[in-house]
From TrEMBL:
Role played: Catalyzes the phosphorylation of riboflavin to FMN followed by the adenylation of FMN to FAD.
Key words of the record: ATP-binding, FAD, Flavoprotein, FMN, Kinase, Multifunctional enzyme, Nucleotide-binding, Nucleotidyltransferase, Transferase
Name of this chain's protein: Riboflavin biosynthesis protein
Catalytic activity: FMN + ATP + H(+) = FAD + diphosphate; riboflavin + ATP = FMN + ADP + H(+)
Keyword Nucleotidyltransferase: yes
Stored Pfam families: FAD_syn, Flavokinase
Membrane-traversing stretches: none
Length: 314
């Protein structure tokens, strides 16, 4: 998959310009709704024998417009998004820098620079996609201004149980600890990539060694608690039980950690890149009065995670 980085007006040259069927959107999470948009762009690309492409933006527009924007905003890092898109069959990915220059463009200017000048022959976006100054451009605008130079498809909302599938809804589900709902709307388990870092080794002392995961600081984490997870390292997937939170039995409640006890695993993996798939929530994080009570609960959590993941695999 070719990856291009554009910034208006300074950096707009694409070295290997082709003819594109383009899916437009931010695509954070690459959820069920996003997949419908991208699959339509792929379908048209095959039909017209042109290159299937995606155009997305960085950073999230909320970073520009929302003063109280949370630090942990994203459902996917760039690396994760690229992995999902490549797997779907996208052959070109355009990252467009979202800054005040871009946000100030008139819809006509946006179309000229990012559709016509890039040799896009078909544009696909969701029903709620907007572009141009103050979001004044819609997919209706896109079609009206095409003058036959390109065609368009607007993908209607995708709903599950009457609820529109959206990144915002998935974020709320994660913040509420409703990991099953988030996974259902994503169409897969919520994933977080990270690096295994050195920790306090307290889990090893308790008989339950954990991998301490350093997660990208802008990536969303589920509500504090204990979860059944899959843990992938060195290309192999393992069962695990994960505590995400502040470890209140030992800490002051201010240090946020992601710790995974990997079932049937005894290898040194410091510095390794890993992926955590959040399968099910087991319980809230809690503070214990003593070590014995904590050890008993960890053992129970381990057994719960093992049973949950066995059921998933059945």
């Amino acid at each position: 998959m070719e990856i291009f980085h554009l910034q208006y007006p300074e950096q707009m040259t694409v070295p290997s310009l082709k003819t594109y069927s383009l899916a437009l959107g931010f695509f954070d999470g690459v959820h069920h709704g996003h997949e419908c948009v991208i699959q339509e762009a792929l379908r048209v690309a095959k039909e017209k024998e042109i290159t299937p492409a995606v155009m997305t933006f960085t950073p999230h527009p909320k970073r520009l417009f929302q003063k109280d924007c949370p630090e942990r905003l994203y459902l996917t890092t760039k690396k994760e998004k690229e992995r999902y898109l490549k797997k779907m069959g996208v052959e070109a990915l355009f990252y467009v820098e979202f800054d005040w220059n871009l946000a100030s463009l008139q819809p006509e200017q946006f179309i000229q620079c990012f559709i016509e000048d890039l040799n896009v022959k078909h544009v696909v976006a969701g029903f709620d996609f907007t572009f141009g100054v103050k979001g004044s451009g819609t997919m209706t605008t896109m079609e009206q201004l095409s003058a036959g130079r390109y065609t368009t498809t607007t993908v209607e909302e995708v709903a599950i149980d009457g609820e529109t599938v959206s990144s915002t809804y998935i974020r709320h589900a994660l913040q509420s600890g409703k990991i099953d709902l988030a996974n259902r709307f994503l169409g897969r388990y919520y994933e977080t990539d990270g690096i295994v870092v050195d920790g306090e080794k307290r889990g090893r002392q308790l008989g339950f060694p954990t991998a301490n995961i350093e997660v990208h600081p802008e990536l969303m984490l589920p509500l504090k608690g204990v979860y059944a997870v899959y843990f992938t390292v060195r290309g192999k997937r393992y069962k695990g039980v994960c505590n995400v939170g502040t470890v209140p039995t030992f800490n002051d409640g201010n240090t946020y950690t992601v710790e995974v006890h990997i079932l049937n695993f005894d290898h040194m993996i410091y510095g390794e890149e890993v992926t955590v798939e959040w399968v099910a929530r087991i319980r809230d994080e809690q503070k214990f009065d003593g070590i014995d009570a904590l050890i008993a609960q960890i053992q129970a959590d381990k057994e719960s995670a093992d049973a949950i993941l066995d059921e998933v695999l059945a």
